[in-house]
Design goal:
14% of the residues lie in helices and 48% in strands. It is mainly β and 316 residues long. The chain has 2 domains: 2-119, Carboxypeptidase-like, regulatory domain (Immunoglobulin-like, Sandwich), CATH 2.60.40.1120; 128-314, no CATH class.
């Protein structure tokens, strides 16, 4: 009864709003989309709650993708964000209840959108992939991309269907089916078989206290060839998730290992330079006793038509 009352207050507290839409969904629902007199014409106010088993879920992360705007739920499961009209994807993440990614939605200026996220019992599929693909070319180039993913593809943006057909010029990517521009291509998938690459007597990777994760990633990702924008996107997405733990063991799957254990990629024409980086990690409350051989990483140089891809996954 408390949650129903709270939603009623959120929807009706703005008397200058005109209700437009209501949509049902298994893991989230858009309670209302309303024009509001007190919201700026180039902004959208997003408010709502996160619940689990009918009760408020505290400290859930609510953010845009990429994570330019974010907040966390309070003790009553409530949150609020102010978005730009350009934002279209919102996700909810909780360390013990997993992640819910909303489908792309048009958050119109001058509107207030009320959401409800409905968390599941446990995070059933922690072996999730979150790759982002950047393309750059000094001259305009028509590019076809196909993925051979080892698991189940669950989400893509723009829509993958049977592949991506894009026009690349400098750092801009244009979907040739819609003529819409994107800063990168995003896909998400699940594979319960995903695991570290190790032998019986040796694990190659890193043991890290998570309060050092930001400088660690800054240094390693720069060495691996990611520019400041790609490093920023990676760190703002993964560091908050990693820091839900006190310690982690981590391993990078790079280039050939990315192909072998995560997903092969077919791209025409072939890039002059390509770097694919995937971070695997497992969290611990205390420092793990696993013997670890430090992973040796190789630098990378960009040349002409370049593809950069990064992703990651938290393992059971």
């Amino acid at each position: 009864m408390r949650i129903l009352t709270l939603l009623f207050v959120l929807v009706n507290s703005t008397s200058f709003c005109a209700v437009e839409k209501r949509f049902p969904s298994p893991n989230y629902r858009i309670v209302s989309d309303q024009w509001c007199a007190d919201v700026l014409p180039n902004k959208c106010r997003v408010v709502g709650t996160v619940v689990f088993d009918g009760l408020p879920l505290e400290n859930a992360l609510i953010a845009t993708y990429p994570k330019t705007v974010s907040t966390r739920t309070d003790s009553l499961g409530r949150f609020g964000l102010i978005l730009n009209e350009m934002d279209s994807v919102i996700f909810m993440y909780h360390s013990t209840h997993g992640e819910i990614v909303m489908n792309p939605y048009h958050y119109k200026g001058g509107h207030e959108v009320v959401l409800e996220f409905i968390a599941t019992d446990t995070w059933l599929y922690p072996e999730e992939y979150k790759p982002v693909i950047y393309l750059s070319s000094p001259t305009p180039l028509s590019v076809e991309i196909m993925l051979n993913f080892k698991g189940e593809l669950t989400f893509s943006y723009p829509n993958y269907e049977n592949g991506w057909s894009v026009l690349v010029h400098e750092n801009e990517i244009i979907d040739q089916s819609t003529n819409d521009a994107y800063p990168y291509l995003f896909w998400e998938g699940r594979d319960p078989a995903l695991d570290f690459n190790y032998t019986e007597d040796q694990f190659v990777g890193f043991v890290l206290k998570t309060d050092t994760i930001v400088p660690f990633l800054e240094a390693k990702l720069e060495f691996l060839g990611l520019n400041y924008r790609e490093r920023t996107d990676f760190i703002t997405y993964w560091a908050p998730r990693i820091m839900e733990n006190n310690y982690i063991i981590a391993q990078f799957l790079i280039d050939d290992d990315y192909d072998r254990y995560v997903a092969e990629i077919s791209i025409h024409p072939k890039p002059d330079a390509m770097r694919r980086i995937f971070l695997l990690y497992k969290g611990f409350d205390g420092r793990p006793t696993l013997e670890v051989q430090p992973q040796v990483l190789k630098p990378f140089s960009r040349l002409g038509f370049t593809l950069i891809e990064w992703g990651g996954s938290e393992l059971n």
